[in-house]
Automatic annotation (TrEMBL), chains A, B:
Residues 26-161 form the TsaA-like domain. Keywords: Methyltransferase, S-adenosyl-L-methionine, Transferase. This is tRNA-Thr(GGU) m(6)t(6)A37 methyltransferase TsaA. GO terms for molecular function: methyltransferase activity. It comes from Jhaorihella thermophila.
């Protein structure tokens, strides 16, 4: 991952690596399957929706499949997943779309102290026996480790100022 | 935490503890400050907003404060935090509000394989020097460990079926 170690002009690293300061452990409960890998991935999930195709889905580890009870096709859900390919210490970042460097907490960049990404997607198929869940789209690379699935709820997930 | 080990009728544990299977580590970047502790906490963030008061805020560890650059008062943000008080192995749960047990992935319960919670809140004050961020409300206990702050974005965070 040499290229992930590059720093652009204006970018600032922390003076320590958050990856070396684990306060708690996460477990991978499955993986996201997609057609995307480094080089061909959409910029974001909106672009992934426009591109369509592929067979975006979740493969839950079978032990967790009973946890799907109560979900159904058409329901919006959150996927939380682990973006484990980049560095974790860039506190100021210079994305190509921004005129000047920004703090990591003002960006949705996968490069962050805890590389947890979240996507709101819609269930398109559901097999509670195998733990395979079709979803309408994803911008995650194939085999991205999954951390959690939660029901999306308008009353919680839309902030009051919107 | 003896009471957290109780199981209600219809609840089913995994045959292993996800807490014992760490595939990656998270680091705590600060904490949520609130008036809430076990016994007096609101049921959810909507109720916390109705109750009002307190002085809900984030105390970011000072090293991470530069990461706030680009955020401002009035902006909606996500807080991701670590709900570390419960067990992690209940795959079917029987919440008091539900007529029958449900899978953990159909619930927003803090009891889950990876106890990562998320709240959409609004910034009410911001001091990039100290890393203290006032927020409109929280239902998190005082001193809950913070994992991440991200900008809330309608184009990503509202699923297409809504």
């Amino acid at each position: 991952m040499t290229d992930a170690q590059d720093i652009r002009a204006g970018e600032v690293p922390l003076d320590f690596d958050p990856a070396g300061r684990a306060h708690a452990g996460v477990t991978f409960i499955g993986r996201i399957r997609s057609d995307w890998s480094k080089g061909n991935a959409p910029r974001n999930i909106s672009q992934a929706r426009e591109m369509g195709g592929g067979d975006p889905r979740i493969e839950l580890d079978p032990a967790y499949a009973p946890g799907l009870q109560g979900l159904e096709v058409g329901r919006p859900i959150w996927l939380l997943y682990w973006m484990n390919r980049g560095r974790r210490d860039l506190i100021l970042q210079a994305p190509r779309h921004a005129p000047e460097p920004r703090g990591v907490f003002a960006l949705r960049s996968p490069v962050r102290p805890n590389p947890i990404a979240m996507s709101a997607v819609v269930i398109t198929s559901l097999d509670p026996k195998t733990g395979v869940i079709g979803i309408d789209a994803t911008d995650a690379f194939d085999m991205t480790p999954l951390l959690d699935i939660k029901p999306w709820m308008a009353g919680i997930d839309i902030p009051p100022c919107i």
